[in-house]
């Protein structure tokens, strides 16, 4: 199975042309810039129109308009994950969004603790602490998330958030992918991560 991983497109998704073929496209959040409903609707329309057999997305800290929202009307092969999962070809994908309302309370830590132990592909917006999360002298990742990832050992962990750390890294049995699509100064795109599992 080939997974195309995008993240942090910040309302510039329509500039992404000639994306490579894959079985599943995953967007790990920050598809809007200002968190407006119009931006979110435009992204979902674009995503639905892409020719991938399956498409999965979660929200990032910029996607505030979807906090608490129930999304209806997506195509059957488009999956919005919000502390929930979808199973595709016997592979369990689980997604945890990054809403600021959760981050300023203990809810985000509880969301991480609730990630099922049988998750094969974990999708978060935030990186785990110390893995593709360093910028300006700071590790922006979550210690609670790192702890849970070390416990469950997913085959693949997809995230974004830290634009300057775009890339793929294998650590133990887990492949980590920071799919931040826009570079650090929001001017150009990084090539999407294409991962075989």
Automatic annotation (TrEMBL):
For this chain, one GO molecular function annotation is: hydrolase activity
Q: Where is the Calcineurin-like phosphoesterase domain?
A: 1-164
The name under which this protein is listed is Serine/threonine protein phosphatase
- Which InterPro entries does the protein's record reference? Calcineurin-like_PHP (IPR004843), Metallo-depent_PP-like (IPR029052), UPF0046_metallophosphoest (IPR051693)
List the PANTHER family hit by this protein, alphabetically: CALCINEURIN-LIKE PHOSPHOESTERASE DOMAIN-CONTAINING PROTEIN, METALLOPHOSPHOESTERASE
Superkingdom of the organism of origin: Bacteria
Q: Which SUPFAM superfamilies match?
A: Metallo-dependent phosphatases
């Amino acid at each position: 199975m080939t997974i195309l991983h995008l993240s942090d497109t910040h309302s510039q998704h329509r500039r992404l042309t000639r994306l490579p073929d894959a079985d599943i496209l995953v967007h790990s959040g920050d598809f809007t810039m200002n968190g407006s409903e119009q931006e979110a609707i435009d992204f979902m329309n674009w995503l639905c129109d892409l020719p991938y057999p399956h498409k999965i997305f979660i929200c990032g800290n910029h996607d505030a308009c979807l906090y608490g929202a129930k999304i209806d009307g997506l195509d059957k092969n488009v999956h919005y994950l919000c502390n929930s999962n979808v199973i595709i070809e016997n592979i369990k994908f689980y997604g945890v969004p990054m809403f600021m309302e959760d981050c300023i309370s203990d809810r985000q830590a509880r969301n991480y603790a609730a990630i099922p132990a049988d998750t094969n592909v974990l999708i978060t917006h935030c990186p785990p602490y110390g893995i593709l999360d360093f910028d300006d002298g700071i590790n922006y990742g979550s210690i609670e998330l790192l702890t849970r990832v070390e416990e469950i050992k997913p085959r693949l962990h997809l995230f974004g958030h830290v634009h300057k750390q775009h890339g793929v890294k294998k650590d133990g049995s887990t492949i980590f992918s920071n799919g931040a699509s826009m570079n650090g100064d929001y001017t150009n795109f990084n090539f999407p991560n294409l991962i075989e599992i």
